[in-house]
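Collaborator request, handled under Task 6.
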Amino acid sequence: MSDWSLIADETRALIAYALILFLIALCAFIYFHIYYRKSIKGVVTDETQLALDVAYFHEKGKRSRQEDAFYISPMDEIRKYGFTACVSDGMGGMRYGDEISQFITDSIKDMHPISFFACENNAEAVRKISNSIFEEYKQQGGATLVMIQIYNDHLSFYSVGDSDIILIRDDEATILNPRQNYVSILIRGLVRSGKQTQVAYGNKKARALVDYMGNHNPRVIYTKKPLRLFADDTIIVSSDGLTDALPWDSIPQYVERSAAATAANLKMSVKQKKLPRQDNYTSIVIRLSRSIV
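Structure tokens returned to the collaborator:
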């Protein structure tokens, strides 16, 4: 056999070997792409997509001005970017509460679309908003913030202050975010010393915030790992004007099949309380159901 024949055979073998490697790589790429998107990134699939029904109310209560503000991301972009909602409650008795709460929700709006998979970066962005308020208002005012993100069947949240994120599942309510007020510190101390915790609520400083938006580098409470959601879950994102009037563990009795009916029940029930010092009360109600794709 001539040298040219040997070279030709070797070339054909190399080409065949390269072709086999290419096919293996192509198959691996296709498999990884499908697995990554469906199993890790959680793109829209019949199994994971939940439909969101959203409603809200925004009431002034007995206050002279509305110091609550809220933001709901565009509903027509849920499949692409997920869903974001937040409520900010200006601190009563301090100046600029209405300006600050509106600044916070406007800043969240300007961040849209917010990555669901960058919780630490998002928490840092919230801290930067607080630091901007600190520089501008010099602690002459502040606000709370609760924000949720829903992407397919998972939820992440961010919280500063004492507003509420409530999950209602199987007729039971759970507050997802701990309140950053003095009563929480008192309770921890009483528990460690083996004493009854009821006395904490009688302390005059119990409701005072220990962290808030407008403080320098506040502690942002946020989910390190997203929470799994299910059809028939209800999420309520609200200022504390709601739970001051209606105990949080009583909220499930007001839940209906639609977000609008649930919001109407909650709003009417607060009004019927006729509390003489009713705070502003704002809530975003999200009702989840199985999507039909």
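The cover message to the collaborator said: "The CA atoms of residues 127 and 217 lie 6 Å apart. The longest strand covers residues 50-59. Please let us know whether this matches your experimental observations."
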